[in-house]
Write a structure and sequence with these properties.
Layout (H helix, E strand, L loop, with lengths): L3 E3 L4 H10 L8 E3 L2 E3 L6 H14 L2 H13 L1 H22 L3 H16 L9 H9 L2
Parallel strand pairs: 1-3
Antiparallel strand pairs: 2-3
The structure holds zinc ion.
């Protein structure tokens, strides 16, 4: 897919750390066609981040995305729902077991409704949004 994964901190991380107290290792940064992460990511998470890279486009788009993402919970939710839908589909393409699919759906629904995104929606709504995509 031609996505570059870079194993070092992007300066955006320091802003997120300052704003939300997130730690390196619990956050992945996408910026200008590249993914910044401390360690290798599972395939479905790469697919998730690829959605954000498409949403951002180039360096100017990445900057605008970041500003909107921080300022607007609606924008953050919309961007994340699209990414989580792709991630869930990508997981289900590889893992055919219905039980494991359900466990995975619950896990990412917890993430989407959790403090990582500032509790933008409830668990049930998150699950419904990801599953119905
Ligand atoms: Zn995301």
């Amino acid at each position: 897919m031609g996505i570059k994964i870079v194993y070092k901190k992007h300066w955006i991380y320091y802003i997120l750390h300052w704003l939300y107290g997130v730690e390196w290792g619990s956050v992945v940064i996408t910026w200008n066609g590249k993914i910044y992460t401390p360690s290798p990511l599972p395939w479905h998470l790469v697919e998730h981040e690829a959605v954000h890279l498409k949403q951002q486009g180039g360096i100017f788009g990445s900057f605008c995305f970041f500003v909107k993402y921080v300022l607007s919970s609606k924008f953050r939710l919309d961007s994340e729902v699209k990414a989580y839908r792709v991630q869930y589909k990508s997981f289900c393409q590889v893992v055919k077991d219905r039980n494991r699919q359900g466990i995975f759906l619950n896990k990412i629904s917890e993430d989407l409704s959790g403090k990582m995104y500032n509790n933008i929606i409830g668990f049930g709504e998150a699950r419904e949004l990801i599953h119905s995509g």
